[in-house]
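One-letter codes give the sequence; the fold follows as tokens. An example follows:
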Amino acid sequence: MRANYLFTSESVSEGHPDKVADQISDAIVDLFLSKDPEARVACETLTTTQRVVLAGEIRCKGVYENGEWAPGALDEIERTVRDVVRDIGYRQDGFDADTLEFSNYLHGQSAHIAQGVDAAGNKDEGAGDQGIMFGFACDETPDLMPATLDYSHKILQRMAADRKSGAAPFLEPDTKSQVTLRFEGGKPVAATAIVVSTQHKAGYDQGAQEAELKAYVKGVVADVLPDGLLSDATVYHINPTGSFEIGGPDGDAGLTGRKIIVDTYGGAAPHGGGAFSGKDPTKVDRSAAYVTRYLAKNIVAAGLARRCTIQVAYAIGVSEPLSLYVDTHGTGTVADSALEQAVADVARERLGGLTPRGIREGLGLNKPIYRCTAAYGHFGRTPDGDRFPWEKTDLIDALKAALG
């Protein structure tokens, strides 16, 4: 592992067209799980100028059964979609929560998929698809996340809060950030470049108003980044293209699942390729990525490594993972093979194993907790009631005990 280098990660706000799509998809997941904790959902969303389209497969008791929608269900889906758009803040001519056109093409889950995934007889619930999933943690920030991504997220979270509170009324919802840090000895020591492109009210691309917007952004960056990282040598690119009045789905179409690196580790760790949003927790693309983050975070929190990557793999219809891999990148205090055994033992004892059912029940994932994950990252968040249980660090003692 190199000790000295530059590294960059980006984030996008809740108003980015792809993130609008992610939040709608996860709001639909939450809606169905609130009706039926065993619901199966695979919901894709398209957003574009004055239009939202849903497509995918569902199964939900009391909502969609035997090919029929329950009375009022379609109206509730549409209300959910419009509420998400309204909450984000879109009341623009090109994308308005109240007047956009909405189309729903959700339909029943394939019986052939269901027969492979559902438990039956002595067969446990199988994985919803084949694939590989990764979890990661490192000690670069208190959240045990890559610093470049953590700061990119927090810049946008602060800007969104100021927009909604009225503290920065010149902002509009669509924003992107990017942070480049210089690492020495594997630790972040300086911010070399900051990029922020934000949608804005008319006129904030010239004169005194442009200066006000840029001064505001620099102030947010200074509040978010730890002391000592910013200096006179830090280069800022704030709205480098100039005007950014047309944004969100009116400026570019959005689709569910196109920001998987933003959602995870900002490029600092491998990604299995599967998106999270729009999927119920029986889908291992989501649940296994959550549990591997949980395990990796606890390894780093326990002081057993400064960096940790965990991989699992599944086959569709098969409950047990095909493989488990732990890599501490040369920073571990014990052998990686010993950690692999400890992870397997702790997962079995505390979660009921790394099967889809074990993960889902062990972490309490069959709940409407997903809309909040769909912007500003699924990881590095603060556990809050039922939300973000994979961010808890409650396995430290168990891991140490398993290592003897």
Notes: The chain has a mean pLDDT of 95. The chain has eleven helices and 15 strands. The CA atoms of residues 30 and 368 lie 4 Å apart. The radius of gyration is 22 Å.
